[in-house]
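Structure ticket #2291
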Amino acid sequence: MATDHQNPASKQQQPGASAFKLVIYEQENFQGHCQELTAACNNLQEAGVEKVGSILVLCGPWVGYEQPECKGEQYVFEKGEYPRWDSWTNSRRSDTIAAFRPVKVDSQEHKIVLYENPSFAGKKIEIIDDDVPSFHAHGYQEKVSSVRVQSGTWVGYQYPGYRGYQYLFEKGEYKDSAEFGAQIPQIQSVRRIRDMQWHQRGAFHPIN
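Resolution: structure written out below.
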């Protein structure tokens, strides 16, 4: 199984294939025992996965969590290859993934408003149909304590340049930083999560 990690890719061409599919390998570089997921898994160990060494996302996007029951640090995975843990995070805090769930992307339009204070108060930055690698470059240097997502699905990052802790923002309201999983109210860059039909960054192209 370990010698050719591209074999599962052929399944995505079949009619009726799942809209979400990833393959987890226990060792780096797509080696060792593997497990395929097509739906949410709140505890990988209970599903027989002892360790996540590398990940192949055939149909996404997905979000992984450091702890079971979708808790702890978050990692967003779009379609593509992730050969080792530092390809999906640069926070350097943990290399553990204990749960996964698919992320629904149902809008090609994107609008997010981030607020300085809890309950949508204070200074704000509004972003429409764009990725922003640095809030500072747009003149926003305040903390982010609450967020409104009016359309689209987004991922926010603790630092500029899409670095640090990741926070998934699906459509809805997040009244304080705890609601989006942040221990401190700091977000300094955001980008859209888009269907790979339109957005090819990091796309996995199987070799026929």
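Closing remark: The two ends are 17 Å apart (CA to CA).
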